[in-house]
From TrEMBL:
The keyword NAD applies. Residues 104-280 form the D-isomer specific 2-hydroxyacid dehydrogenase NAD-binding domain. Keywords: NAD, Oxidoreductase. Transmembrane segments: none annotated. This is Phosphoglycerate dehydrogenase. Belongs to the D-isomer specific 2-hydroxyacid dehydrogenase family. Residues 58-311 form the D-isomer specific 2-hydroxyacid dehydrogenase catalytic domain. InterPro entries: D-isomer_2_OHA_DH_cat_dom, D-isomer_DH_CS, D-isomer_DH_NAD-bd, NAD(P)-bd_dom_sf. PANTHER family: 2-HACID_DH_C DOMAIN-CONTAINING PROTEIN, D-ISOMER SPECIFIC 2-HYDROXYACID DEHYDROGENASE NAD-BINDING DOMAIN-CONTAINING PROTEIN. Pfam families: 2-Hacid_dh, 2-Hacid_dh_C.
Amino acid sequence: MTNTDPIRRLGVYDWGTHPCPASALSDELAGSDLEVDVCDLDTVDEFDGVVTVYHHDEFLNAVDWVHTIRSGYDDFPLDAYEERGVIVTNSTGIAGDLVAESAIGLLCMLAKGFHRFRDAQAEHEWGRLPWRRPFELGESTACIVGLGQIGSSVAARAGVLGMDVTGVDVRPVSTLGLDRIHDVETLTDAVRDARFVVLTTPLNDATHGLVDAEVLAAMRDDAFVVNVSRGAIVDEDALEAALDTGEIAGAALDVFETEPLPEGSPLWDMEEVIVTPHAAAQSVTYGERVARLIETNVGRFDHGAEPWNRVV
């Protein structure tokens, strides 16, 4: 596809309800000049472009443009798309503050033990935590692994709460006001003093299994892992072992190697583990944000400009 080809008919692939229904996004786009409708794999070839959550092989030979409403695109065979001349764009940038708010909420829950009160409420039990269990976020340290839009947004919010925030990234970052930025090659050193290790880095070959047994062993025994990025960044077996032996204090996990989290996973039943269903970016505004990005890119195609967030 060339950058001058117009998009007139746009299919919204019916992915269900994550993170917003396809029909809701279709409604958000209804006021534009586009002809928009919900589609399935049998009808996708009737459209110039398709909006989706995940890759489907049928897209490769059906449309000129594929937009994923996620930031991640690790399941998309980019070489195949490039070979067929199909443009792929993602939604990086629309959910940074949404995910950051969720991450800060998880930090608050872990620090104050709110998750344990919720568990007690379900059993109609009244009781406080041991007096030394709750602690102050403002007196705590956080190491943010990955300082892109989400990570920088988490860092800014954590700093406002008075936390001592450090970062880890593959490049020097000087605009966040952080005292210390570590190279990813020194991750074990970066996490040693952190009460919270917050994972906001993209999943790729370099970050797959990045948080392994060695990294977990380097963490404080009162430290927590918070993962709002991708499950495969953490070696889940090593994490389960570290939690089971008390090598670390707990975790808040929004993402997992296998989703939904299998029923037999021990993570479900660990008292100091918070499990959320890959919902950190979920918000009533998510569909509106995606729609505005799509409309912008349709306009850029019309004017022969490069689309925003082009992956391939």
